[in-house]
Amino acid sequence: MTPMLRMLPVALACMCAAAPARAHHSFAVEYDKAKPVEGTGVLSKVDWTNPHMRIYVDCTDDKGVVTTWNLELGSPNSVLRRGWKPSDLRPGQKVSFKGYGGRKVLTRAAADVLTLADGRSFTGASGAPDANADQYGVGAGVPIP
Amino acid sequence: MRYLVIGLAAAVALAATLAAQGQAPAQGSEQERLPARLSGEFTPLAKPDIANGPVPRMPDGHPDLSGPWVGGGSNQDIEKDGGLKPGELPLLAWAKQLRDSRKEEDEPYLYCTPMSVPRTNPYPWRFVQSVTAQGLSTFYVIHENGDAGGVRKIFMDGRKHPPADDLLPTWWGHSIGRWEGDTLVIDTVGYNDKFWFDSRGTPHTTQLHTIERWTRTNFGTLVNEFTLDDPGALQHPVQLKFTARVQPPGSELMEFICAENNQYGVAADIPNIYREKGYGLEVQPPAQK
């Protein structure tokens, strides 16, 4: 089945939350909470690079037009510290994502939810406001205790 | 609401699609290994039962300050982060005006320049001791993320600062340290004016003089009593306080090469205002009395 693409430029449910501890840059400088996006496609490239990880997802619409999304995640170190490994993200995998589009370039988005074909997923990848941290640490939407 | 329904439908359809394609479900152990929530920026801290333990000590009896630590400095707003109320940071008029005119999107740090003192971000850092035949010679401060390749040195051998006229202003300045009981005291001058204390844009001049008093109060806590002195930007010195937390035992710094693939600004079409004019104060501070 052709991977589908859904783009939802609509304000999602209330994202009321304290801003997470700020890292390399704040979410709001580059990305727009009012531009939620989502899609399903094939991982074409995975860059475990600094200062931010990037994954590229090719999404094909009903007419066969391919859009490549450049999705920003946190730093590789943050992703690794949460338990993900390079083998979890391989080019050719099918993934779905939700995120927030760039203020000027919609397809340069911050990935907030990433779901693998086997159902595993994570959220909060973008640094967007996220009050549901369930781990003890800094940067997960909780202030330093 | 309509879009939300579509979104839910899409999620259900995706699940059905993936299931229909016969994707193998994850192993149970894999499911357990990967947490449900993965924040973009995250550094684990020691849990309270460990953090409340006693201060570990070096063979010479001084507290072990090696960490790794998280926090202990300014990040978003030095005034607030340091424990002051809004408006209490005694900035001179020109400095306040400059801070208020700066935009977060223009932070030099975003272009992979060093954070400098007293800034910290949500990544770990360490004090690292260098001991030679003459004894403790230097403390190095190594931040996993935010040094941009520069390593801060704190000379512990009793030397003094060079004469001010001989100091070329640098990102980390010239630091000398000493022990006062269990407190590591670091005195630093010779900073350049190119870094921001915070994403709010709080400025300083090359007259910046900082005194840090680092005290480990238990296993998990390192307090930074911080004296901020800058006759060029402040009406008078001010006392701030920051607290660092320790990472779980066994934690280690990881590699971070900031300039590797920095695509900052492209998604929002933010211009790099430093490409032509370089870093440093955007205005000339008024002449000193």
Which properties best describe this structure?
heterodimer, A: 145 residues, mainly beta, 5-stranded mixed barrel, 2 helices, 7 strands, disordered N terminus, disordered C terminus, B: 289 residues, alpha+beta, 9-stranded mixed barrel, 10 strands
What would you say this structure looks like, in words?
The complex is a heterodimer of chains A (145) and B (289). With 145 residues, chain A is mainly beta. Chain A has helices spanning 27-30, 76-81, and strands at 31-47, 54-60, 66-72, 94-102, 108-116, 121-123, 137-138. Helices cover 7% and strands 37% of the residues of chain A. In chain A, a hairpin with a 5-residue loop joins strand 2 (54-60) and strand 3 (66-72). Chain A is globular and about 40 Å long. With 289 residues, chain B is an alpha+beta fold. In chain B, 16% of the residues lie in helices and 24% in strands. Chain B contains six helices and ten strands. Chain B starts with a helix and ends in a 12-residue tail after the last helix. The chains are: A mainly beta (145), B alpha+beta (289). At the A-B interface, strand 1, helix 2, strand 4, strand 5 and strand 6 of A face helix 1, helix 2 and strand 1 of B.
Short description, anyone?
The complex is a heterodimer of chains A (145) and B (289). Chain A is mostly beta strands.
User: Which runs of chain B of at least 5 residues are low in confidence (pLDDT < 50)?
Assistant: 1-39
User: Would you tell me the structural class of the helices and strands of chain A?
Assistant: mainly beta
This entry's quaternary arrangement is heterodimer
Work out the number of β strands of chain A.
7
- Residue runs with pLDDT of under 50 for 5 or more positions of chain A: 1-22, 127-134, 140-145
Largest sheet of chain B: 9 strands, mixed, barrel
Order of helices and strands of chain A: HEEEHEEEE
What coarse outline of chain B follows from CA principal-axis ratios? Answer: globular
Taken as a percent bin, the fraction of beta residues of chain A is: 35-45%
**Adjacency order of strands in the biggest sheet of chain A:** 1-2-3-5-4
Structural class given helices, strands, pairing of chain B?
Answer: alpha+beta
